[in-house]
Amino acid sequence: MSTNDQKKYITYAYHGTKRNCNIGANGGETNPCNNVCSVCGILKGVFRVPTPVPGRSGGNFGWGIYSSTESSKANDYSQNINRSDPIKAMFLCTVITGRKNVLTKTNGNLTSPGRNYDSTLAQVVSTATGANETLVYNHRQIKPHAVIMYSLSQTNTGPRPSPVRIYPAMSSRRTVLIRPSGSQTSRRVHHCEQPVRQGA
């Protein structure tokens, strides 16, 4: 594949999800848990495409795996089940978009990008979504490269993330402790190299 094709059909994007264990806490816990934890499931190599539920919406653009080139959008999906722990998780991923079906109106019932397309590109035309999003409906089209452990600092204009530096993936399941300049708060980047396997 040429460089131009790679830029056209492959993109880097952020994916926010739920963390309900202690992985990354205090720079000590680095092993994925065995509980139902979205962060650890992805670290084990499993991106799960949500199962459609009759009568329910799959989100603004259906039952797929969401990602965005804007970290602020991914942050909207990042949650920590333990409210006493401020650390949240966000993945930096490679997404194979292929041929994109560009949508400007929401459709929560989608389970595929449509005939002759490989992904859905949801473009912002109002404040409904807040940022462009890419959806894939096959777990093999998205691969995690790093998980960013972070917390938000409060400012006069609202919450904002403290500075985070991201390093290229160097080894499987390696956690790097990062202390931004002038900050007492640690930020961790957990690197992933294992291939994405089929989910349950």
UniProtKB/TrEMBL annotation:
Chain positions covered by the region annotation Disordered: 180-200
Start and end residues of each PARP catalytic domain: 1-159
UniProt keyword list: Glycosyltransferase, NAD, Transferase
Record flagged with keyword Transferase: yes
EC number per UniProt: 2.4.2.-
Molecular function (Gene Ontology), one example: NAD+ poly-ADP-ribosyltransferase activity
Pfam families given in the database record: PARP (PF00644)
Top-level EC class as recorded in UniProt: transferase
Protein name as annotated: Poly [ADP-ribose] polymerase
Organism listed in the record: Exidia glandulosa HHB12029
